[in-house]
Design goal:
Layout (H helix, E strand, L loop, with lengths): L34 H4 L12 H4 L3 H16 L9 H20 L1
């Protein structure tokens, strides 16, 4: 049989049926002080993961977003995580300082 004329019965579903645990338990409190919970929903760069990635409800995502923003304003979380950029800038300053000293 030609592959374009195959019936749809032979196509396999690519969706997995593995159930994952919900990201927020019923006892977890969504608050700006709960850093262990908040840090799960932030990327290494400091961005808030989308609702699709987090697998949260709309209400939970709103509460997480508000808690993250409050924590950022109170300096509990950084707005950006620029460790690599800071390392590059520091090394550039050090090498620039060495160049000026040698002259």
């Amino acid at each position: 049989m030609d592959k374009f004329k195959r019936p749809f019965l032979f196509l396999k579903s690519k969706r997995s049926f593995r159930r994952r645990l919900p990201p927020i338990e019923s006892g977890d409190r969504i608050d700006y002080r709960n850093m262990s919970l908040i840090s799960r929903f932030i990327s290494e760069q400091g961005k808030i993961f989308s609702r699709r990635v987090n697998r949260l409800t709309l209400k939970q995502q709103r509460l997480i977003t508000i808690a993250i923003k409050q924590a950022r304003i109170l300096s509990l979380l950084p707005f950006l995580n620029n460790e690599k950029q800071l390392e590059r800038a520091e090394s550039a300053v050090i090498t620039a300082g060495l160049r000026t000293r040698n002259k």
